[in-house]
Amino acid sequence: MAHPWLVAASLQRPAIGPNAMRHFEQSMKASEDLDLDLNTSLTFLNVVDSYVLGQVQLAVGLAEWRRLAGSDDGWRQTATAHLQRLIDSGQFPYLAEFGVEWFLSVDEDAEAAFEAGLTGITTRWARMARLPNSNVCSHTLTSATRTCKS
Q: What CATH number is associated with residue 100?
């Protein structure tokens, strides 16, 4: 990531500038085909944005942890010892079940994991949009109006 500081900065104040508004407009356009009512569309976009920002925060944090450890080997040794202490405490049965190596391998293909998570989110929302009794909407971005049938 070219500008890891941007993640922290984005969490400090609401984004209301022209770039944030362009992002909002692009996001609303991208969600048009889901035919969700306005409030549901905004919730969907918030879920997607939160997921993406969360994944970026994880990537930045992991990169910083690796940097501080000095190498991938140093990071892995530090992380292995830490996770093993957590397992040994008995307070983390799922971590114990999956094991340290599984947990550390999760980020080996971070791009594929990110795509799988995002696909899961968007697929679920698309399914919800097609459920009977869900709000079906027609909308026009030029007039910023939506007509919904329940």
A: 1.10.357
